Amino acid sequence: MEIIDGNQVAAEIVAELKAEVAGTAGRKPCIALVRVGDDPASISYVKKKEKTAADIGIESRLIFPPVTITQDELCALIDTLNADATVDGILVQSPLPKGINEVAVFRRIAAEKDVDGFHTLNLGKLAQEDETGFVACTPAGIMELLQRAKVSLSGKHVVVLGRSLIVGKPAALLAVQRKQWANATVTICHSQTKDLPAITRQADVLIAAIGKAEFVTADMVKPGVVVIDVGVNRVPDATKKTGYRLTGDVHFPSVSPLCAKITPVPGGVGPMTVAMLMKNTVKAFRQNRAS
Ligand code: NAP
């Protein structure tokens, strides 16, 4: 069994982006990081993004409106960033305060600056295999991890647990693409799927993204499977200072001995998400300069 090290792969991507940015003359890529209010988790996520951007040489424009901002004011702020030619990517940190329509805000971001890949147009481009679009960072990170771990999906049966627009569906669309390393046969499962273990046991590659701690157990996989565990769940743990530990959607102790390869939680898919956000930002910069 081999552990796929997301920290190492993310560091490789950051180093590649740093070299690319260092080699570009003139203005550097710029990402606007919009964080509404003072939610502690959002503060820490945005700090991590700001730090990784700085490591690469990407400029971060930090905009922290108060929690009292209205939907119209937030949309007006996004319009200003959309119109600013020196801003290549826009990231609005989720969750937004109650009363603000998150989907409407994400759709307001110009598709060519939508480095989170949530815009309808970018989802459409993914479905059309149009590479000018932006793919959501977590599924893009999953595919990058698989490729760099030399796991070809071609002809394999990929089972995706979860059908969210930010993980499950785009991951399935990527796996089924007409590309040499993709070309998978894909099954998407969700909460209404009947006899889930019978399906997961057929998986050559299992992508678990349901948000249920240690849901996938040894009896649900076949020997030799590659498992990508996307889940991030907090489970109470009195031995930890925080009172909890992080765990994935897969019961790692019993499943990992059966796997050819598996991602751990933490340290698997998680670090890839920020790296892919930066990759999207550099792509947006490249496309912005070429337009
Ligand atoms: P989500 O929007 O809540 O979607 C969960 C999906 O799982 C839904 O499609 C749901 O089915 C399905 N599901 C729930 N219970 C199920 C069950 N018992 N059997 C089969 N399917 C079931 O979650 P998400 O945003 O995709 O995130 C999934 C997990 O990934 C979470 O733990 C999240 O924290 C984590 N995550 C990690 C990263 C990262 O960077 N590592 C990024 C994003 C998300 P229905 O559609 O029928 O409800």
- The oligomeric state is single chain
Distance between the termini: 46 Å
For the record, what CATH class of the largest domain applies?
Alpha Beta
Shape estimate: globular
Mean pLDDT equals 97
CATH topology of the largest domain: Rossmann fold
DSSP helix fraction:
25-40%
- How many H/I helices? 10
What small molecules does this complex bind? Answer: NADP nicotinamide-adenine-dinucleotide phosphate
Please outline the helices and strands.
Elements: E1 2-3, H1 6-22, E2 30-34, H2 40-56, E3 59-63, H3 71-83, E4 89-92, H4 102-108, H5 120-127, H6 137-148, E5 157-161, H7 168-175, E6 185-189, H8 196-200, E7 205-208, E8 226-229, E9 233-236, E10 244-247, H9 252-255, E11 261-262, H10 270-290
Parallel strand pairs: 1-11, 2-3, 2-4, 5-6, 5-7, 7-8, 8-11
Antiparallel strand pairs: 9-10
Helix pairs in contact: 1-10, 2-10, 6-7, 6-10
Bound molecules: NADP nicotinamide-adenine-dinucleotide phosphate.
Notes on the protein architecture:
This protein has helices spanning 6-22, 40-56, 71-83, 102-108, 120-127, 137-148, 168-175, 196-200, 252-255, 270-290; strands at 2-3, 30-34, 59-63, 89-92, 157-161, 185-189, 205-208, 226-229, 233-236, 244-247, 261-262. The mean pLDDT is 97. Strands 1-11-8-7-5-6 form a six-stranded parallel beta sheet. A three-stranded parallel beta sheet has the order 3-2-4, with helices on both faces. A two-stranded antiparallel sheet has the order 9-10. Helix 6 (137-148) packs across helix 7 (168-175). The chain has ten helices and eleven strands. It is an alpha/beta fold and 291 residues long. The protein starts with a strand and ends with a helix. It is globular and about 55 Å long. It has two domains: 25-110, 3-Layer(aba) Sandwich (Rossmann fold), CATH 3.40.50.10860; 137-270, NAD(P)-binding Rossmann-like Domain (Rossmann fold), CATH 3.40.50.720. The structure holds NADP nicotinamide-adenine-dinucleotide phosphate.
